[in-house]
Amino acid sequence: MDLDVYVTAHRAEWDRLDHLLRRGRGLTGAEADELVALYQRTATHLSVIQSTAPDPALTARLTQLVARARAAVTGTRRASWRDVVHFLIAGFPAAVYRSRHWWIPTAVLSTVLAAIIGWWIGTHPEVQAAIAAPDELREMTRPGGQYETYYSSHPATSFAAQVWTNNARAAAMCLVLGAFLCFPVLWVLFVNMLNLGVGIGLMSSAGRLDTFLGLVIPHGLLELTAVFVAAGTGLRLGWTLIDPGPLPRRTAMAQQGRAAIGMAIGLALVLFVSGVIEGFVTPSGLPTWARITIGVVAEIAFLLYVYVLGGRAARAGESGDVEAADRSAELPTAA
Known about the structure:
Elements: H1 3-23, H2 29-52, H3 56-74, H4 81-98, H5 100-122, H6 125-131, H7 134-141, H8 146-149, H9 156-177, H10 183-205, H11 209-242, H12 249-281, H13 288-315
Helix pairs in contact: 1-2, 1-3, 2-3, 4-12, 4-13, 5-10, 5-11, 9-10, 9-11, 9-12, 10-11, 11-12, 11-13, 12-13
C-alpha cells in the first residue's frame, strides 16, 4: 500500500472528525450521525495502517483521534455502588473460579514443597546447625519463645495492619510479576514456602509441631490460599504472554491483565480478613481447637464463595474483566 496515497485519500475525513470533536456538544443530529460514521471509518483506517504500512507519527495521531471519538460516542461512566456489589458477588469470585486450574495445582505443589523442606530440616541436625546456633534455635522453639511471642509482639491493631500490608504486597507482586514469564512468581512462592518449611522443621525437631500448627492454621489457611490464588493468576498471566491462544497477544494480555487488577483488589479484602484473624485470634487466649475452628470456617466460607457464587457467575459468562463499555475498543484486523 502506498501510504502517501492512502493519507491523501482519507485526510479530509480525519480532519472533519477532528473538527466535529472540537465542537463538542453543539452538534446537530445529522452531525452526530456523521461523527459516529467517521469514528468507525477512522478506526478501520488505523487498523489498515497498523497492519500494512505502520508509521509511528501517523499511528499516534489516529490512535488519539479514535480514542477521543470513542469517548465522545460512548460517553463516560462513573463507578457506582452497583459496580462494587457486582464485583464482590460476581466479578471477583468468577475470576478466582476461572483460574482454579492454575491456583489449585500451585497450592498443592507449594504445600508439598513446604512439607518436604520441613521434613528435611527436622530430620537433619546439621541443617538446623547451618540455620542458627543451638542457643538461638532453643530460644526460637522453646515455650514462650520467638515463634510464639511473634504474634503478640505488637498491639493487635497495628500487627494486623502490618500483616495485611505485607501479605497484600506479596500477592500484588505475584500478580504483577507474572508478566515476566512466570519466574519471579515462582521465586516469591519458593521464599514463602521456605519460611513455612523452616518453621515446621525447627518446631518439629523440638517436639512442638502441634503448637506451631496451632499458631499458623487459624490465619494461615486463608492467607496462603490468597497467596496461591495470586500466584496462580500471575503464572496464568505469564503463560498468556508465551501462548496467547486464539487471540492476538496484546488482546489476550489486556484481558488477563484487567482481570488480574480486579483480583488484586479482591485478594486485598481476603487478606484483610486473614490479617484480622492473625492479629486478634492467633495470639488470643482461646483454646487451640477454637482458634483452628475459626480459621477452618473462614477458609470454607471463602471456598464456598468462590465455588458457589463464582461458579454460577462464570457459567453465566462472567470473566472478571471490566464491562465491555469500559474496555478499549478492539479495532478490526485487516485481512
